[in-house]
Amino acid sequence: MRDSKIDYRQLEQLKANLEAISKESDAFFEAAAKELAARLLSKVIRRTPVGQYPKGSGKVGGTLRRGWTSGKSQSAAVFANSLPVHHFGDTYVIEVINPVEYASYVEFGHRTAGGNGWVEGRHMLTISEEEIKRDASGILEAKLKKWLAGADGK
Questions:
Q1: pLDDT at 107 over 80
Q2: How far apart are CA 18 and CA 22, in angstroms?
Q3: What's the predicted TM-score (pTM) here?
Q4: Is residue 9 included in any domain, yes or no?
């Protein structure tokens, strides 16, 4: 049997590269979650109805729409980037809420003031969520390819 020499430097380099990717993966997943949240907000804001009130009533429409960004006048992407990302095991979660007290009534519907009728819900969040779920794999695949290409130095 002949003596063999093994150069472990390449294995050590591979180990270092994998550790670096592992450390960067949390940042990647958080950025991906924020991008999906921004896209969701953009869709739901456009779908949210704005109340029309007669002149002189003192009411101004748009409270529900502004509620998606907590009343701040900023883009959906900027607001989404300010939201915290919660990490539970292998799941990354961003809560997208509208704190306006009547948001759920507009989303899901409600009885009329006299209780004799029903106002259909607008389902602005539900429809937007379905669209994002449908598009998410393509969005994430493109983002992952870009990230991996950057990791390879291409």
A1: yes
A2: 6
A3: 0.80
A4: no
Structural domains of the chain, count: 1
pLDDT at 27: 87
Q: Which residue spans within the chain are E strands per DSSP?
A: 86-88, 91-93, 109-111, 118-120
| Helix residue ranges, H only, 71-123 | 76-82, 103-108
* Phi, psi values for residue 93, rounded to 5°: -125, 135
pLDDT computed for residue 154 by the predictor: 39
Residues 6 or more apart whose CB falls under 8 angstroms from that of 32 comprise 92, 140, 143
Q: Would 47 be classed as within a structural domain?
A: yes
Task: Quote the CA–CA distance of 83 and 79 in Å, as a whole number.
Answer: 7
pLDDT at 49: 96
Give the CA count within 13 Å in the CB-facing half-sphere of 83: 29
Q: Which domain holds residue 51?
A: 24-151
